[in-house]
Task: inverse folding
């Protein structure tokens, strides 16, 4: 099931799919920025970036009490980078990760997806200072 192209990407570019996701967020607290020249990506890479954005937004809604969430999709010469930054309550990254609330795969799922496409996921957070999630994936033509 995870290898199927999500409906959000069917006939749409990754920036367009992210715009729709942002538009569906409640209120006026989520923004998308696209930097660099968008280019087609292998489906596994686009799916990984999309699903990571969705999971990070869901976490910001469910756990962070964030007032603002900023997504930045950056097309670099050799990679594509996604940053999801919120101004929420943050968390202690040293605490063991528990199960999810049942709405997604959580941070463990984001890490597993990143590994599947040769990407790297980093999370910068601390209690009281929000969370920044970064996924960087190489722009390669043939991804596993």
Result:
């Amino acid at each position: 099931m995870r290898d199927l192209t999500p409906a959000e990407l069917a006939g749409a570019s990754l920036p367009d799919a992210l715009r729709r996701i942002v538009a569906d967020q409640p209120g006026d607290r989520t923004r998308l920025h696209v930097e660099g020249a968008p280019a087609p990506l292998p489906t596994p890479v686009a799916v990984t970036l999309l699903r990571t954005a969705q999971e990070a937004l869901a976490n910001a809604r469910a756990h962070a009490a964030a007032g603002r969430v900023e997504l930045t999709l950056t097309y670099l010469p050799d990679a594509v980078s996604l940053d999801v930054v919120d101004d929420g309550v943050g968390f202690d990254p040293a605490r063991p990760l528990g199960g999810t609330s049942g709405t997604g795969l959580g941070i463990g799922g984001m890490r597993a997806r990143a590994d599947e496409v040769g990407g790297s996921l980093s999370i910068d957070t601390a209690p009281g200072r929000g969370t920044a999630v970064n996924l960087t994936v190489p722009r390669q033509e043939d991804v596993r």
User: Anything to note?
Assistant: The domain at 7-138 is CATH 3.30.565.10 (Heat Shock Protein 90).
